[in-house]
Structures are given as C-alpha cells and as structure tokens.
Amino acid sequence: MLVPRTVAALLNAHPALQVVIDEAATPVLLRRLRARRLDVALVALGTAPAESDVTSFRAHALPVVGLRIAVPADHRLARRRTVQPRELADEAWIAGVGSPGEPQFGAWPTVGEPRIAYTVRHWTTRLGLVAAGLGITVLPGTMASTVPADVRVLTVHDRSYAGGNSTILTRSDPGRATDLAVNALLEQASALRAQAND
Asked: What is the pTM of this model?
C-alpha cells in the first residue's frame, strides 16, 4: 500500500515525473542502487552481511507502522482490536515463501513452535486463505486498509518483540527527483501509521 500511494501522490504533484517500480530482494536492490540503476530503495535491513553494508548510502528511517495479524471475520478473536501473543499459540498460520533474500512473514515472531498450515508466495492468496477460514497471517501495518471485507486486522501487544526496521536508501548525491520520492514515501508512511493507529 505504501508504494502505490506514494507513486500516486508523486504523479499527482509532479505529472512530468517518470516513476518506475522495481521489486526485488534487499541484496539485489542494494546492488542496483550502487550501480545507479535505482535512485531510491525501500528495504528491510537484516543482519546478513550482504545487507549490512549500507554506509555509502543516505538512510532515512521509515515511520514504524508495525506488524499486525489478519484473521477471518468469524474468527474467535475477530471482534477484538488487540490480542496478546499467548492467544495465538494454537493458531494455524499462513506464511510467505519466496526467493532467498526476500523478506517473508511466518507466524508472529514470538510464538514458539507455530503450526504453519500453508506457505504461499502472493499476498492475495494469503489473504484469500485467511478469508476462507484456513488460518491467520502476519501482515505489515501498511497493508491494513487493503484486506478483503471478510478479514479483520488486529494489533498484537507484544513487549518482547521490537519490530522490524524498514529504511529508505539513496545514493549520497541524490537529485531533486530522488528527494521528492523520499519525501513522498515519508509522508505516506506517516499517514498510514496514523491510519493504522486509529
């Protein structure tokens, strides 16, 4: 949701701007940024060596929206706004699967020995399985407003989970278009954070 909203805002404010979206794993995006094939990279930084050397880039911390869980509309927790991690221990989880280096969501990070019922590549399939009552899934808070009508999004109150770290990276010599894109990403992320916390 963040990237489409950002692109729409950019093109609305600057119709002459050309925007190309490039989706890839973090190490690939970093290589493309170094090779000047990208101007802006939105990445989830981990601890892998390929991902840790970002000192040559300008970094902009994205406002933290956090993770949520999606449950079917008739789920036992669906009428609640918040849940505790212990309430998720016996759930069937729908997890993501993808190429090495691509960030994926499994079960809630602090649920021990989760039962993974399905692993699928695409969000539409994952949310469709949730809507069909076949399990629950973790999803980024930025996607909370995009779920189907028969899916509910809940916040997990988990003091033992620090959350992820999404960052906007640019080269050290960005141009005007790059600065416009970074500002638009930050604005849209702030708006999504406010919406998710309402």
From this structure: 0.71
